[in-house]
Amino acid sequence: MIDALLLIGVLVAIFVGYNIGGATTGVSFGPAVGAKVLSKLGAAALMSIFFFLGGWLIGPAVVETLGEGIVPGAVMTLETGIAILFFIGLALFIGNVFGVPASTSMTAVGAIAGLGLATGTLNWGTMGQIVSWWLVAPVVAFWISGVIGRYFYPTINEWVAISRRETHLWVVERNSLVPTVRAAEGTGRRELTGSLIVVAIGCYMAFSSGASNVANAVAPLVGSGALEFDEGFLATFSNMEWGVIIAGVAVTIGAFTIAKRTLDTMGNDLTALPLTAAVVVMTVSATIVTLLSAIGIPVQLVIVATMSIVGLGWGRATRTTTVSEAVRGEETTTVSVGALTAEAEGEEMPAIGEEAAADIPKASDLFDPSTTARVILIQNFVPVLATIGAYLTFRFVPIFGL
């Protein structure tokens, strides 16, 4: 028999996972949906599958960090775990209502840190390690993307020959019992290849999201040991495995429902990021997040991806100047993220030093200023809200036995 308090905890964890599904589906598959490569239904299905795989294979390392690394396991009781999950879910829900995919890792860490500060049990060593990687990871993403933008972007641009369009690249026919998928009329072979690359990278992003974010939904429950059962069917899976299963189910629900908002924001409203650039950004971001998740570090995917975009744009813009010219001070480089829109997908790019700075578009050609400001504001507000809410609750509300 499941205890009523545990049932409440599971429901709150599902609420958190639901909002994680809404937030991360847009980040992972927004470019593919915006380019009409994938439908929202297809994005939800792929998100569900690959999020679970990432959570099952790599996620436990991050679950351990959030469950007992930031605060001692003795403090992470079922009661406190439920409260933490509530603050995480509420903060993420606010972001999803505005169609903005907030950083789930920062929100979860903030809520748990609020508990640690209120009880005087915060592990400053673990927090220092996490925050250090939060500072280092975006810098690494910037420089890797910058190198790619300067030296390898032309080659990648030739591979991913696909542009944003009004009609879908693929058509699903339901004339028979088993639906069939075929290329839409007018879709070329290069576009088909590019579309498969974009979808594959989206699946990779979903995998990395599962590796990092499954902990945000269930770490407080797993850390309290509440999902450990001794007999019956429930004993089939371990405490950790039940946590991953609950998170996977919850994210699936979110991906098929509330994710429609963030898919619109990330796929259409926020940026006109070319799909060539989107593939690079998604690959770099997903790789960094997956590697850090493997060592138990929860990473803010949204910020890493943002710095990857900036780095790629900077690298692309510096192609107007050779290294020798820059060293001698003969040429100045116009640094602009808008450089990513200088050519269409598949178009041959001039060699380094042969392109005029006047040909580089402004950053405003790439980002919608009002939407970008709204996204940045909410993404920073959500983690702060979770931290302050958790601290005030655990500090002044005496119902948690702390």
What does this structure look like?
Helix content is 67%, strand content 2%. It has one domain. The chain has a two-stranded antiparallel sheet with strand order 1-2. The mean pLDDT is 78. Strand 1 (170-173) and strand 2 (180-183) form a beta hairpin. Helix 4 (78-97) runs antiparallel to helix 7, helix 4 (78-97) packs antiparallel against helix 13 (369-396) and helix 5 (104-119) runs parallel beside helix 13 (369-396). It is mainly alpha-helical.
Topology readout:
Layout: H1 4-34, H2 40-57, H3 59-69, H4 78-97, H5 104-119, H6 124-159, E1 170-173, E2 180-183, H7 189-224, H8 239-256, H9 259-269, H10 275-294, H11 301-317, H12 323-328, H13 369-396
Antiparallel strand pairs: 1-2
Brief overview:
The chain is mostly helical and 402 residues long. It is built from 13 helices and 2 strands, in the order H-H-H-H-H-H-E-E-H-H-H-H-H-H-H.
Q: How far do the termini sit from each other?
A: 27 Å
The biggest beta sheet reads:
2 strands, antiparallel
User: Strand fraction band?
Assistant: under 5%
Number of strands: 2
Give the helices and strands as they follow along the chain.
HHHHHHEEHHHHHHH
Number of domains: 1
- The structural class is mainly alpha
Counted by DSSP, the helix tally is: 13
Q: What best-fitting shape do the alpha-carbon axes yield?
A: globular
Helix content: 55-70%
Radius of gyration: 22 Å
Low-pLDDT stretches are none
Strand order of the largest sheet: 1-2
What integer is the average pLDDT?
78
